[in-house]
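In response to a reviewer's request, we include the raw inputs and outputs for one of the modeled complexes. The three entities were modeled together in a single run.
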Amino acid sequence: MTITQRFLAIAFALAIAMLGAGSASAQKAKIGVIYPSPIGELGWAHELDVGRQAIADKLGDKVEFLKAENIPEGPDAQRIMNQMASENPKLIILGSFGYMNDGLRLAATRPEIDFIHASGYKTTQNFGWFLARNYESAYVAGLAAGYVTKSKILGVVAAYPIPEVLAMINGLTLGAQKVNPDVTVKVVWLNSWFDPNKSQEAARSLVAQKADVLYSLYQDTPEVVSLAEQLGVYVISTSSDMSKHAPKWYLAGPHVNWSKFFVASAEAAIAGTFKGEGYWGGMKDGCVSVVAISHDLKPDQRKVVDDAIAAITAGKFHPMTGPITSQDGELKLKAGEVMADPPLLGINWLVKGVETRIPK
Amino acid sequence: MMDTLMFIVLGTLGATTPLLFAALGELVAERSGVLNLSIEGMMATGAAVGFAVTTLTHSYGLGFLAGALAAGALSLAFGVLVLVCLANQVAAGLAIGLLGLGVSALVGKPFEGNTVPPLPKLNVLGLTDVPIIGPILFGQDILVYAGVALLAILAWIFKRTRLGLIIRAVGEAPTVARDVGYPVIGIRFGCVAFGGLLAGIGGTYLSTAYTALWTEGLVAGRGWIAVALVVFGSWIPLRIAIGAYVFGALSLLELSIQALGLDVPSQFLSALPYVTTIVVLAVISRDATYLRLNRPVALGKVFRSDG
Amino acid sequence: MREGLLNLPRLKLELRTDRSRFAVVGVSLMAVIASFAVGMILLAILGRSPMRVANAFFIQPFTSLYGIGEILLKTGPLLLVAQGLAVGYRANVWNIGAEGQLIVGAIAAGVLALYFDSSNSIFLLPAMIIVGALAGAAWAAIAAFLRVRWNANEILTTFMLSSVALQLLYYLVTGPLRDPHGQNFPQSALFSDAALFGTLIPGARANTSLLLGLAATLICYVFMQHSIHGFRLIVSGLAPRAARYAGFGEARAVWIGLIAGGVCAGIAGVGEVAGPIGMLQRVLSPGYGFAAIIVAFLGGLHPIGIVFAAVLMALLYVGGDFALVSASVPNAFATIFQSQLLVFYLAGALLAVYRVRLIWRSGQVPT
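The model returned the following structure tokens for the whole complex.
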């Protein structure tokens, strides 16, 4: 044999081997999950994965997963989504707001695949959204913040000015103002879900402006939390308990849990009973909670916080209860009036006391 | 207002240090005639490896060492490509740079989401309590002072020592240097490796001191700014350091402007370092004669050891 | 000459007299095989099954219409941009800013599409292409001007301009061009149908970008191989002083070299926003501008070689996605693979042009 012939023979053999090696297993239902940031040990993506794990725990051998983490919104997400769809899954979980347009387009061409989309607001026959009432946990954290702040300035490092985030800022502000009426809030908009460089710079600039409580709003990694520990200011995170990165200065940990919802969606998708609708889980359904509340709160302060949690969980108290005035001075909710879900879902204003405006 | 200013000045030295190390490293390489465009990748590799080792061993010293060696290894690969395989230096730099970015992402993956306590700040001579200048001059971390020392040493080497002369000879007239008996390839290898070590230290500083975590995109273009700084500084160490300081300050400008409440779009401020680089580059290069006088003559040209 | 301390043999390079096209192709093949081998070893170290990953990377993409469509979809912009870049590289004009030129082209086309969002005209798409090409050319022209007039190194200026273009995009989609009904998310409204490319093959996503890329290949082939202008450019690259003596201006080479890249990148940008993306958003390109640089070199800076290199790079992108989703291989691996390809190619390129000989100290030359 000449060298060329030998080479070709080897290549041919390799190709055959590879063809065989990767054949997929049949019969298991596939579920795809796309995460906007690394799963890691905590953060938004991690909590999505906890939900996914719940599906695995419940349905065991009946499912297998297609996972793609750290996928930014845009052409990468589009490719990955299409990629997953080509494997004919039953359900695809889109873990970020920015996947919406690509997801909708894909859902329209693949009616046999069901989709659930995080932080969205559009539904079709096979496309639903899920959202957490984080404004509830933000309110509770705001109570704590109002108690501990000395400068009466809270700083928020916020991802995007989407309604969900605005509602959370409002929740924080209202909670703080309940126990400390002169509190003001400053916001820095990162325009990214995952930019540790910038988020730290934003945190530093807020501290330079005298904020002594920071709210790391939708930073998936704990860089703002650990920076707060360094700088000696209180800090609240989103999605997960990040207290181990700020043992002394961690104030409260709003926490989100998708297990119940994900399992229900997976079962519906597999059984064929899936309907594209919106899910807005709160403390009442166990989707939202507040953990790791700081021991720096005095007992009577702690009681107020615990009472608020109990009231919201029982459905007796809604943080967006009037009288509430917006930044522009407009009275948005009359005394005793509770904000209904539809306008809250698309909220586009910030309450009085938030000094930063929504970017135009 | 004063607080904001203080905070800017204090932060600048931290932002400057990685740029300074990387740029000075590139200076040495370029002085010997090699244009190394892979700094971004080398810094990223240094950052990831340094962060990983620091997290695992809880030792900053080991972390910095590991980061430097990792970047150094990458620079040796670059050296082989351009000095032995005589590859085009631009293409080789881009290839190794991309490789460095990929390796850093792979190495750093298990450590994403961790933080380490940042490199502790010193209290030199106990003088940090002096108002205003105390924290600035005496309360920085050890690498800031190391950077200043490095600057002084390199300036002295190039101006006054035989080693500096030899390196410069290799970069200006390699054929002559070879004929006189100096191992041109060997010296270039050494300079490129040294540049790699420094880039690795700069990168590790980013992940263990400045931002104190690892993520893809941590280096954020600083490697390229370092290459530009060498041109700005006309291949003179002190000028490069000044350029590095100006850039460190510029990158902090963005949040200071926000802090001052001025309504400038943040993207404009983010673009400012790059626009400034272009403008300064153009201005410095305008005088072609000046450029030619300062630039190592053989920079970027392939050198064949058998002439 | 001073005797060294170590009596190491020296390498002597001899120009090959039997240089053939086959040698160049051979180097590319060697690079592929070498990267492949190293990749498999790396995977084994990482604890992943090399065969499964190789299957995901190289076989799976070809087993479905979807996969083939994706490869074609990716090949389009890579081919287009690489052809433009290669024109400059052959003339020693180093355009590293194709990513930024792509973005600017996309922005220009996007502005047009958004402004005429209620139009049904068949002229909208061609207008978008022209505007995109001009914008990309203009962005590259900045660097050309700075180099020709003020000697500013174009490697640095094009790269910096790339970063500036990105910030410009961020600014526009966060502010002036933001969709008023988009819940404050930084992206523009979706383009109307008149501003979108259709797909070439039903069921697959490949679109007109590919045709444009092939057109560019043809143009570059004719230009480089058969026209006097192409010849001038090549000579300017190989021997600038001789070129100047013969009257081929270096300035001209810089302008043509940079603008060719800018035009191609700009059109590729239009292909992205009028194609799979359909709007302006923060992330428009998964690094095509930089990947195209690798494609240009891997193709030996030759128009036909670049076609093969573009398909290979597209395969790596798509294979990387398959590997990510079905074998959990991190994306970084695809980056490593891509850069390894170029590294091995550069390492081996020497062998296509020179024969390497070992010379022992005693002066004997083993044959």
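As requested, we also summarize the result in words. The first helix of chain A runs from residue 3 to 21. DSSP finds eleven helices and 14 strands in chain A.
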